[in-house]
Design goal:
4-stranded antiparallel sheet, alpha+beta, 13% strand
């Protein structure tokens, strides 16, 4: 083979091997990079590149080097999982930068961070005022975790003793004009129902929809291929609440219109029962 053909074959083999090794190392190499993980990743990448294009490096020797680095990285990760002390040696430990609202200058110096680095990390967490911060921790992957003082934390429904319905994972039911029928049936909805929902948003058929997502409350988000069509994302629960109140008003209207005493009493009774039902389920029909 010519030199170019050799480089082509070696590069393809190197690419396949590094892909396999990356899958073996797992997602933590990307999502939770420590400085050591970063250095190992760069080293393995450089070795793979050398195997692919540097003909002076024996192909088998390069593969052995890649396997050794990958194996050692996996062993270190396994040891960190099994032993807290070993994990502390390999990955280090989080460093407290702000405690009880006070900046710990010694820990800043230890972490080799300046005041500007600290403020930049805080701003990334939407914390602009030092007076509002109770605790700030520099994690082993370089990210900063921030806890604000209680009086500056946002209110939650639990703080207000509000009853809210539990949310679940939303699901895509239309992707690129294709209906996810198995997923739709699993969620308990029909194709006809979906078609009705997307037509409310301006679509004529499922083929007109780029993306459609349904949440656990039955609300459907629709994005059409034609961005010039102005759609209004209708929320189902407020709509249901309005419909129930309209039915109650109709029942009271029917009671006023009829001269039949028995029918009048029936309409009033049904209206009262519906009012009680609305009162009970109203906390669950708020967005």
């Amino acid at each position: 083979m010519t030199e170019y053909e050799v480089i082509l074959v070696r590069s393809l083999a190197s690419f396949i091997i590094i892909f396999i090794l990356a899958r073996i190392l797992g997602k933590s190499q990307i999502s939770q990079l420590t400085f050591f993980d970063y250095v190992i990743g760069i080293t393995i990448g450089n070795m793979a590149a050398a195997v692919g294009i540097d003909s002076s490096v024996e192909f088998l020797n390069g593969i052995i080097g890649l396997l050794v680095y990958t194996s050692l990285s996996i062993l270190l990760a396994f040891g960190a999982i099994k032993s807290y002390r070993f994990r502390k040696i390999v990955e280090g430990s989080p460093t407290i930068l702000i405690k009880e609202g006070r900046v710990l200058e010694k820990n800043l110096l230890k972490s080799k961070l300046t005041y500007n680095d600290l403020m930049a990390g805080l701003r990334e967490k939407n914390a602009f005022k030092l007076s509002e911060i109770e605790l700030a921790v520099l994690e082993t992957d370089g990210q900063m975790s921030v806890m604000k003082k209680a009086e500056y934390e946002p209110l939650t429904p639990k703080d207000l003793n509000m009853i809210v319905e539990e949310e679940h994972k939303p699901s895509m039911i239309i992707i690129d004009g294709s209906l996810m029928e198995k997923r739709l049936h699993y969620l308990g909805y029909s194709k006809e129902w979906v078609l009705g929902e997307i037509m409310k948003k301006g679509a004529n058929s499922i083929d007109d929809v780029f993306l459609a997502q349904i949440d656990s409350q039955g609300n459907v988000y629709v994005d059409l291929y034609d961005d010039n069509i102005k759609t209004q994302q209708i929320k189902q629960k407020p709509l249901l609440a309005a419909q129930l109140r309209k039915i109650q008003a109709n029942l009271e209207g029917f009671a006023l219109q009829t001269d039949d005493v028995a029918a009048k009493q029936m309409y009033y009774n049904q209206s009262k029962e519906l009012q009680n039902l609305i009162h009970q389920i109203n906390p669950y029909l708020k967005e």
